[in-house]
Amino acid sequence: VVSVNHGTGVATMKFKSPPVNSLSLDFLTEFCISLEKLENDRACRGVIFASAIPKIFSSGLDITEMCGKSTEHYTEFWRAVQETWLRLYGSNMVTVAAINGSSPAGGCLLALSCDYRIMVENPKFNIGLNEAQLGIVAPYWFKDTFVNTVGHRVAERSLQLGSLHPAPEAHKYGLVDELVPEEKLQEKAAAVMAQWLAIPDHARQLTKSMMRKAVLDRLVAHREEDIQNFVSFISKDSIQKSLRMYMEMLKKK
Q: Which PROSITE patterns does the record match to this protein (predicted)?
């Protein structure tokens, strides 16, 4: 759900894909289209990402898209994941994540790709790249984005353990920039957005590009190879088996 306030130049994009805002192929495709529309809207300078579903920001990549499907499907899905990150991490707009719940794996990547992250200060909510726990590996560009946020050592430990950090710990490590009570989340996101929009756009955009270009260029240069790596990895019997076991465990929950 996207709304644009033309007075302030700020859009709000609320994820609404019950039950847990899984990043399915449809979700990612719609996300990219919405983002592109906002990028092309001269009146829009910033976007706040939030979830319309309580207690969850996004549960990450939809595992059903990676289980028992064709090579063609895996290829199409992974291209959409790449496209989402390239657009969001490279966006000219100011991007603020208002994280109102847990945000594992791909959900964490969405938040990491924003300029600023505000999370509800509830220790029951957690965030992190927990791929290792599922028996899969976060791709290098997930890793790069993570390292750029929290530094090498925290990223190395967190990625190997597949850690999900409760909100206070996520804040301590710099994975999120700020914690606020739930009722203050939207207000805080608007205040942060105003602060970032007070900077001349061209200066902020060029600086952002300078900081992020090397990481973006690395994927752009190796996109097809990255897709091939994903497809051959995800197609392995052992990986399919651990994903199926993980899905069974989720069903029991």
A: ENOYL_COA_HYDRATASE
CA nearest 62: which of 102, 20, 33? 20
Give the pLDDT score at 192: 98
Predicted local confidence at residue 250, as pLDDT: 83
Structural domain count, the chain:
1
Among candidate residues 93, 99, 88, the one with its CA nearest the CA of residue 199: 93
Residue 130 a catalytic site member: yes
Q: From the candidates 106, 107, 128, 162, which is the catalytic residue?
A: 106
What pLDDT is attached to residue 159?
A: 98
Domain membership of residue 94 as a residue range: 2-198
61 is a catalytic site residue: yes
pLDDT in tens, 180-194: 999 999 999 999 999
pLDDT score at 204: 98
To the query of whether residue 156 is one of the catalytic residues in this protein, the response is: no
Of 21, 112, 130, 185, which is the active-site residue? 130
Is 106 a known active-site residue?
yes
Rounded to whole angstroms, how far apart are CA atoms 217 and 85?
Answer: 12
Q: Does 17 map to a domain?
A: yes
Q: At what angle do helices 25-40 and 71-89 cross, to 10 degrees?
A: 30
Out of 23, 38, 61, 110, pick the active-site residue. Answer: 61
Residue among 60, 81, 89, 75 nearest 229 (CA)? 75
This prediction's pTM? 0.95
